[in-house]
Amino acid sequence: MAGFRGKSQAVVLPLAVVGLIGSLLPVVYLHVVSVGELSPVRHTVSDYIFVDDGAVLLAVTALSLSAASAGLLLALVRSGLPGRGAASWLLGLWSAGLAVAAVFPTDPVGEPTSFSGAVHRYAGAVMFAALPLAGWLVSRTFTTSTAVRRFSVAAGITSVAFMLSHVAVVRPGSGAVLLGLFERVLFALLYGLLFALAAAAVRRGVSS
Predict the structure, then answer these.
(1) Distance (Å, whole) CA 155 – CA 28
(2) In a 3-state reduction of DSSP, which class is residue 55?
(3) pLDDT for residue 103 is more than 90
(4) What is the pLDDT of residue 3?
């Protein structure tokens, strides 16, 4: 049984890492082809659904990241993370939030909020809160990795800044619109956190 778990771990974790890397390719491509069309400072990543082929490519990124995160969660649980603990539930919420956000796209800038747009925003709020908190809990109970802890703290602070940056959108004239900038920094930190969690799972697998 232990041998089977070890072999499955050797498959699941590399696939999760490949999925994380692969999820970056479509969204990086969208950033390149939309230069001059969307502002990376003002527009969120979700707004790329309104450029050519953006809806499909962004869905590929979100669903690939969701699947890779689910695989990473499985690898962490098989490395000893409690499957019914708060950290596992929060990682599951992050993964589910990505899938929901992909199924329910955002609204065009300036348009009234639709049902789909509202679901998208709530899913985003859940996932951006869930992953930093999950990482923090993992760093407290599962691994001594300073990278996991630092990425979790930095992502948590940036997540709050991203939420607060919505004020400039809701109340025009209250400040510069930096929504896209904060979100991109947040995504960079979250990717860093996911890779740090993968490294922690590898170390736990080797030590066990």
Answers:
(1) 20
(2) helix
(3) yes
(4) 46
- Name, in order, each residue with C-beta under 8 angstroms of 1's C-beta and a sequence gap of 6 or more: none
Residues 6+ apart with CB under 8 A from 206: none
Rounded CA-CA distance 178/173 in Å is 13
Give the start-end residues of each E strand in the chain.
Answer: none
60-98: pLDDT as tens digits: 999 999 999 999 999 999 888 888 899 999 999 999 999
Q: Is the separation of the CB atoms in 170 and 132 below 8 Å?
A: no
CB within 8 A of 131, min separation 6: which ones? 90, 91, 94, 155, 190, 193, 194
Q: What angle do CA 19, 25, 31 make, to 5 degrees?
A: 145
pTM: 0.91
* Residue 181, H or E segment: helix 179-207
- Cα(200)–Cα(190) distance, integer angstroms: 15
Pick from 201, 164, 207, 173: which is nearest to 20 by CA? Answer: 201
With contact defined as beta carbons under 8 Å apart, do 153 and 95 qualify?
no
Query: Token match 């992953």: residue?
Result: 131
